[in-house]
Amino acid sequence: MPLHRTAAIISQGDEIVLGQTLDTNSKWLAERLMERGVLPVEHVSLPDDQAALVATFRRLAGTVDLILCTGGLGPTDDDLTRAALAEAMNQPLVEDAEALAQIIAWYQGRGRPMPDLNRVQALRPAAASSIQNHHGTAPGLAARIGSADVFCIPGPPRELFPMFLNQIAPLVSPPPGVNVRTWTLHTIGMGESDVATKLAGSRMGNLMARASSPLVGTTASGGVVSVRLRATGDNPDAAIAEIVAEVKRLMGVFVFADGPGAAGHPHEAFPTAVIGAMRTHQRTLGVVESCTSGLLGSMLGDVPGASDVLMGGLITYANRVKTALAGVPESVLHAHGAVSAETAAAMAEGGLKALAVTDCLAITGVAGPGGGSDDKPVGTVWIAHAHKGSPTDVRRFNMAGDRRNIREWAARSAMTMLWTHLAGQPGVPLLRQPLPVQK
Amino acid sequence: MPLHRTAAIISQGDEIVLGQTLDTNSKWLAERLMERGVLPVEHVSLPDDQAALVATFRRLAGTVDLILCTGGLGPTDDDLTRAALAEAMNQPLVEDAEALAQIIAWYQGRGRPMPDLNRVQALRPAAASSIQNHHGTAPGLAARIGSADVFCIPGPPRELFPMFLNQIAPLVSPPPGVNVRTWTLHTIGMGESDVATKLAGSRMGNLMARASSPLVGTTASGGVVSVRLRATGDNPDAAIAEIVAEVKRLMGVFVFADGPGAAGHPHEAFPTAVIGAMRTHQRTLGVVESCTSGLLGSMLGDVPGASDVLMGGLITYANRVKTALAGVPESVLHAHGAVSAETAAAMAEGGLKALAVTDCLAITGVAGPGGGSDDKPVGTVWIAHAHKGSPTDVRRFNMAGDRRNIREWAARSAMTMLWTHLAGQPGVPLLRQPLPVQK
Asked: Which residues, 6 or more positions from A241, have their beta carbon under 8 angstroms from its beta carbon?
């Protein structure tokens, strides 16, 4: 068994390449390899095409140490992985007596005879070996092409997961001393280029320089910029810890979560952090939403246990609902309009009373596609944070994108105002906030 | 421009290859190519590694007619697509004056100067052209390597989707005479196996038989079962039309939208259909949400123009908010509990008055992971629909899955009750509704 420094992952099947099915197996396998110190360097998805699969096996066998191939091990005519592996190895297919007995036994255990069709699943290249499938009829395959180890695994996750974890992972051989560690820090309130500028200005040098170790990269998604670290070498934990501390020093209050691996989905991690901070401060929260129509409440309510912080909210699309339930004076609506600093503040302060909470966030804006004007174009959003006994914080944001994007940015920006307030930096300017106004 | 018979899709970024982020762009692009009669034959995911990207551009340019590459167009040092494309083309990078002006204007529109870092986004290979990004700072790139057309597209979906649909799709040239027609019918309220049984029992024979044309498949997602048709041959439109009519006959009220291609994302198409039906019936809608905490209002408010139907709502997590704002009598909460038919009905009827609407939907349930009991396990959800002058319709549902799944199913089930009511079949039993109760 050679050492496995690098790996490639093949997922096989028309339904994936034609876009009918989302491939989630490759991500799962990549995470499992990373945990073990093996570096995935390529994912490939191929159709039910034997020639393409043979060419890909041979190409990858020349560039990586380990190939994981999922799918194409079923009993039907479009399942071509067995034949392609044999061709890539220049080997005949032979029937594996033990694998056949296991398939027959699998059916017997379910009170059925094995359909003739399934007999092909016991075939393997002569120089390969079968891997028993305890959760289905398709055995896996273990083989070698050139200097690369190849494992073929059935595609259904409930067969793939246990076969990989119990039967293949023990055979994975990362080089001794190669320790790969990954860490992610999620930030909010800054743009990706602002984050990169901060990282470039570190007293340790440009943290994102491609040659540096740990490798540092950034990914932006819906207002969250995630800083990803990857370290290898003798003492990756220390290398990671040093950079994590420096990133936190550079980013300060804008880092809301961090941890090993992906540190959770950034969109879920942020409401979780906000609810956690509110709980720590023993605060209670209400929301009053116009253009987001419940999205902020929904994001917060997605967090398990949110109900001890989030008391409730008002969705105030119609102006008469703003007046009747949130107590926004008709005179304010008349004088300043529904999308204004004054209305946002009145919504938040009205929600504070109506919902009997310590903190209330209010959002009013133009989500589009219609409803924009010269002085209030689509994307104009006013957000207010009212806190018992403090002046209300009201800010204008200019959001970009379509209706859905504008609504999501608005909800996350409201949470960001609350987050920075709780972190003791209530006045810090935030992304997409060109014109801060303090009421 | 050559004919585009075959295509390959590259997704670029460490976060994908290392398993930190799930690649959903490649599936989306593959679907869009299929709709246009171009056959995707390979997806590849690569790390932030210029040499790997160059080698892959060159390899694929020798095997396919069209290459779509997503990601790696950001402003930071780990964004290597521009440089890799130039190297694969043997071309220098040059600054595109028009692209630079567009990036500067993009920032100006948001009241900020362009950070110096973003200037690199205006670079393109000398023989390539830039594609304006109307939703972000990263221009796309159009180029040719050998006989293959190459389009590089920013990775964030809100930038990728409009750039592909509006600026790249018009340049895609499928071979003439390749007639692929696809059509999708979205259904709600039935399970996938119920839909398959209906399709198998057609007077035209089993519509899902694999050899039949058009090919008929089903996909289930969050309560929506989509029936997908794909026809090729001399007269695919007539073949599609015949099956569409038969599916509608078989499914009746449960079909809520249909159209060519994917007929929109099913999760977005359903609220759009509900808002449209409410508008047709000149009704106004309110929502009162406990366990979904705004998700129903948010789904409805995602529909452009929803504000002429959706007047507002109440998020009533805390019992005191149910009483104070939705008028749920304390005696009802005390006698039956917050998760009960009586509380759901009182919430809907209270919302009808407080929000001054013709129809109100109310949801109360146990979304988990905590809070379940023997008689009200996690997944128990009561939904009520109150309509002025009619008896309130209250139903119990047993939802499955995690907190997020339960909340999404609950919101869609509430809309399904309203949809079937508006379609003139208010009593029809719905999926996951084991115990219909009429108050």
From this structure: none
Separation between Cα atoms, residue A139 and residue A154, nearest integer Å: 7
- If one compares A179 and A99, the residue with the highest pLDDT of the two is A99
List, in order, residues 6 or more apart from A352 with CB less than 8 Å away.
Answer: A286, A358, A359, A360, A386, A387, A388
Q: Which CATH architecture has domain A6-171?
A: 3-Layer(aba) Sandwich (3.40)
Sign of the four-CA dihedral B87, B89, B92, B98:
negative
Contact B413, B398 (CB under 8 A): no
Torsion angle, CA of A172/A175/A176/A180, rounded to 10 degrees?
A: -90
Fold of B267-438: Maf protein (3.90.950)
* Cβ <8 Å between A298 and B301: no
- What average pLDDT does this structure show over B290-309? 97
Cα A396 to Cα A342, A365, B111, distances in angstroms: 11, 9, 12
Identify which of B13, B292, B355 has the shortest CB distance to residue A298.
B292
Torsion from C-alpha of B84, B90, B95, B96, nearest 10 degrees: -100
What is the complex's ipTM, to 2 decimals?
Answer: 0.81
Q: Which 189-208 residues of chain B touch chain A by CB within 8 A?
A: none
Q: Is B391 exposed, middle or buried (0-12, 13-18, 19+ CB in 10 A)?
A: exposed
pTM to 2 decimal places:
0.80
Nearest-by-Cβ selection for B325 from A30, A310, A325: A325
What single-letter amino acid sits at A61?
A
Tell me: the pLDDT tens digits for A176-216?
Answer: 766 778 899 999 999 888 999 999 999 998 898 867 778 89
Pairing of strands A215-221, A255-260: unpaired
Placement of tokens 């704002």 in the chain? B325
* A102 reaches B (C-beta below 8 A): no
Q: Do domains B181-264 and B267-438 have the same CATH topology?
A: no
Most A-contacting residue of B28, B32, B76, B137 (CB-CB within 10 A), to test interface: B76
Q: Hey, is the C-beta of B134 within 8 angstroms of any chain A C-beta?
A: no
What is the CATH architecture assignment of A181-264? 2-Layer Sandwich (3.30)
Q: Residue A206 burial (CB < 10 Å; 0-12/13-18/19+)? A: middle
Q: Where along chain A do its domains lie?
A: 6-171, 181-264, 267-438
Q: Where are the alpha helices (DSSP H) in A176-301?
A: 192-200, 236-251, 266-280, 295-301
Of the given ranges (B32-46, B214-228, B308-322), which has the lowest mean pLDDT?
A: B214-228
State how far residue A423 is from chain B, nearest Cα, in angstroms: 25
In whole angstroms, give the CA distance from residue A108 to residue A236: 50
Q: What are the tokens at B411? A: 């919101």
